[in-house]
Design goal:
heterodimer; A: mainly beta; seven-stranded mixed sheet; 11 strands; 0% helix; globular; B: mainly beta
Chain lengths: 112, 109
């Protein structure tokens, strides 16, 4: 089955810890995106990558880091510098920059 | 900066009624507009994609229109069913997606 997978589905983090969220796609899409969703708000762009070994900051990149070593993988690290990390995180991919975007099932991160 | 607004924030209708969901955006220089459905705690499911050169797009009971000049899109859902209950989000693509906050729809049986 082609699609986007995110793991884990639920993640709990203690204050001061870094955690990494996984995003994998087997759609052969070039571009991948990370969004954050808070209750009652639209999705906000954290980072995006249009090609392997290259990525750009989105609107709310502070406290996050990413890598794009393989076309199918785009992991997101939530660092201890992110002051309010509790949120729902969504990964997406797109064949090119102006086409239909497909989303994974999301990871809910809670800081204890 | 692109601003996307969805009104109303919530909507409750009896089964069988037609739904009209509105999306407005501030910058008309877009490539396309996409409508999504989101169920509680889940990811986004793409419903319709309208390219900037198109006026509307249809899929089954769903029809979406786009008026770039006025910065508006409307999603129509005909003959609503309880299974249509979800949050509907629109996203404008001007090389990155800007999302509205969504309209939460409840269809009462």
């Amino acid at each position: 089955d082609g699609g986007i997978t995110q793991s884990p589905k639920y993640l709990f983090r203690k204050e001061g810890q870094n955690v990494t969220l996984s995003c994998e796609q087997n759609l052969n899409h070039d571009a991948m995106y990370w969004y954050r969703q808070d209750p009652g708000q639209g999705l906000r762009l954290i980072y995006y990558s249009q090609i392997v070994n290259d990525f750009q900051k989105g609107d709310i990149a502070e406290g996050y880091s990413v890598s794009r070593e393989k076309k199918e993988s785009f992991p997101l690290t939530v660092t201890s510098a992110q002051k309010n990390p509790t949120a729902f995180y969504l990964c997406a991919s797109i064949p090119d920059g102006i086409n239909e975007q497909f989303f994974g099932p999301g990871t809910r991160l809670t800081v204890l | 900066k692109q601003e996307v607004t969805q009104i109303p924030a919530a909507l409750s209708v009896p089964e069988g009624e037609n739904l009209v969901l509105n999306c407005s955006f501030t910058d008309s220089a877009i490539y396309n507009l996409q409508w999504f459905r989101q169920d509680p705690g889940k990811g986004l499911t793409s419903l319709l994609l309208i390219q900037s050169s198109q006026r509307e797009q249809t899929s089954g009971r769903l029809n979406a229109s786009l008026d770039k000049s006025s910065g508006r899109s409307t999603l129509y859902i005909a003959a609503s069913q309880p299974g249509d209950s979800a949050t509907y989000l629109c996203a404008v693509n001007d090389y990155k997606l800007s999302f509205g906050a969504g309209t939460t729809v409840t269809v009462r049986a």
